[in-house]
Design a protein that fits this description.
Elements lengths: L1 E4 L13 H11 L5 E4 L15 H7 L6 E3 L5 E3 L1 H10 L2 H9 L1
Parallel strand pairs: 1-2
Antiparallel strand pairs: 1-3, 3-4
Bound molecules: glutathione.
The site of glutathione has 15 residues, from α1 and α3.
Length: 100
């Protein structure tokens, strides 16, 4: 799976936490090891000045991260939805399901 984030998965003092860190932490806690794609940038600068967010725009039409692409090719936008997905889809459960 791939997780597109901004500059890193560090926490910040932002209320509710840093969305990219929250998404990454939830996936790791669920047993996943996502390939982290740093897209840097700052959406308010516009598309031309955010070339590294191009894959994100192609997936969602927006400059916002985090965005998760699961191993099934599903695109999930936003930290809250990624956290919900991680909770509902623990990696150990997925492995157990395919092993039987
Ligand atoms: N509600 C969103 C907020 C995500 C958010 O604030 N993302 C930041 C990066 S941490 C972002 O993409 N900002 C737009 C920008 O960088 O221009 C979520 O929780 O996923």
């Amino acid at each position: 799976m791939k997780l597109y984030i901004c500059w890193g998965t560090f926490q910040t003092p932002r209320p509710g936490g840093h969305p990219c860190a929250n998404a990454h932490d939830a996936l790791v806690e669920a047993g996943w090891a996502p390939k982290v794609k740093k897209t840097y940038g700052w959406g308010v600068l516009g598309d031309a000045l955010n070339p590294t967010r191009k894959p994100v725009r192609e997936l969602t039409g927006k400059n916002w991260v985090p965005v998760l692409v699961t191993d099934d090719g599903e695109t999930i936008e936003g930290s809250q939805k990624i956290v919900e997905w991680a909770t509902a889809n623990p990696a150990a459960g997925a492995e157990a399901a395919t092993a039987t």
